């Protein structure tokens, strides 16, 4: 029987995010209903609200979530009722050309629930990143559920569902940071600081955090950065070279998504070094680089999609690192809030002092 629950919805561009009654259908084949425990407030949700991703309003916001599976549809084998799960937006199909090449982390045909959640009047909702977890319950494809241990803080591990995974993965998966290498991260918001933590987890010995905000640089140092650069006061390229023996970093991760910071990343790497773009640019942005410099500096220029993660592989591994004390996911949880506080959490993002506000929905 369909269920009525409360969820946070935005009905039009820049409209306030408000609590609404939504209808959750029974799961069809391959689907699961998940009772939400926690959900991080991510910049992606703000982009949905502002119209920066699409115009398929109304949106059911929220996607960095943990929960407990309460119903499964026919044929579901990935998870069972009662499983604690982290939700993800890369439910691999197993059949597309990426999956066929043995690269499911790049799956080009990821799955979402086929049915739609709706408002009480029948208006279909577009769930953020195919999840929609600022709600008491949500409906997803079963492949969007990754089972994890239930003896960990859901608010912390749920952040692996998007931003923290994107940053860590930019280091360990896309950047392929190795023990003893040097890494610079330009932009120390949540994703950038997660990239710092990922570099530390991978064994980098020089980790340089770069930002125009000295408080963010200090936060990055708490998560593993060995050096900090205030790029409002210092030229970041010169500073990174100075901290790496005059050569530049082995890996430079650009976590801002702007042409000027990408150019800094390009010139701040060592010869044959790697540049990783994990910051998300706008459609209007363009970059111009001398082609001879692209050729002459060698190495690679990479983009990181969701940290090039495979949730079934990476989520349990990173939860284990968290339990072992090697990855401080707790530090990313700045505050715990209720469903009704989402709009205020969006306002706090503009101040740049919050790594993550986490909505606590259900019982732990």
UniProtKB/TrEMBL annotation:
PROSITE patterns: ADH_ZINC. Signal peptide: none annotated. The lineage of its organism: Bacteria, Bacillati, Actinomycetota, Actinomycetes, Micrococcales. PANTHER family: ALCOHOL DEHYDROGENASE, ALCOHOL DEHYDROGENASE CLASS-3. Its EC number is 1.1.1.306. Its cofactor is Zn(2+). GO terms for biological process: formaldehyde catabolic process. One of its GO terms (molecular function) is zinc ion binding. Residues 17-359 form the Enoyl reductase (ER) domain. This is S-(Hydroxymethyl)mycothiol dehydrogenase. Belongs to the zinc-containing alcohol dehydrogenase family. It comes from Zhihengliuella flava. SMART domains: PKS_ER. Keywords: Metal-binding, NAD, Oxidoreductase, Zinc. The keyword Metal-binding applies. The keyword Metal-binding applies. One of its GO terms (cellular component) is cytosol.
């Amino acid at each position: 029987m369909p269920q009525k629950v409360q969820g946070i919805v935005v009905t039009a561009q820049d409209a306030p995010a408000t609590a609404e009654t939504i209808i959750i259908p029974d799961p069809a084949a391959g689907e699961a209903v998940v009772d939400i425990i926690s959900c991080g407030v991510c910049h992606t949700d703000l982009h949905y609200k502002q119209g920066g991703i699409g115009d398929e309003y109304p949106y059911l916001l929220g996607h960095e979530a943990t929960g407990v599976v309460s119903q499964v549809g026919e044929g579901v084998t990935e998870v069972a009722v009662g499983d604690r799960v982290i939700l993800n937006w890369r439910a691999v199909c197993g059949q597309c050309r990426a999956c066929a090449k043995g690269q499911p982390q790049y799956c080009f045909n990821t799955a979402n629930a086929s049915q739609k959640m709706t408002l009480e009047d029948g208006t279909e909702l577009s769930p953020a990143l195919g999840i929609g977890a600022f709600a008491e319950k949500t409906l997803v494809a079963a492949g969007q559920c990754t089972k994890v241990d239930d003896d960990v803080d859901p608010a912390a591990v749920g952040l692996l569902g998007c931003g923290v995974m994107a940053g860590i993965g930019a280091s360990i998966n896309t950047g392929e940071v190795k023990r003893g290498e040097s890494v610079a991260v330009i932009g120390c918001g949540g994703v950038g600081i997660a990239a710092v933590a990922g570099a530390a987890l991978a064994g980098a010995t020089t980790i340089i955090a770069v930002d125009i905000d000295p408080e963010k640089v200090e936060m990055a140092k708490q998560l593993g950065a060995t050096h900090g650069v205030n790029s409002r006061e210092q030229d970041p390229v010169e500073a990174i070279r100075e901290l790496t023996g005059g050569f530049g970093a082995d890996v430079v991760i650009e976590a801002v998504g702007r042409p000027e910071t990408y150019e800094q990343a390009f010139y701040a790497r060592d010869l044959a070094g790697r540049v990783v773009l994990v910051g998300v640019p706008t459609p209007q942005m363009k970059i111009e680089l001398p082609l001879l410099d692209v050729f002459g500096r060698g190495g690679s220029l990479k983009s990181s999609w969701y940290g090039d993660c495979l949730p079934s592989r990476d989520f349990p591994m990173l939860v284990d690192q968290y339990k072992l004390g090697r990855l401080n996911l707790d530090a990313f949880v700045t505050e715990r809030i209720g469903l009704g506080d989402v709009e205020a959490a969006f306002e706090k993002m503009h101040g740049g002092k919050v790594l993550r506000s986490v909505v606590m929905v259900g019982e732990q």
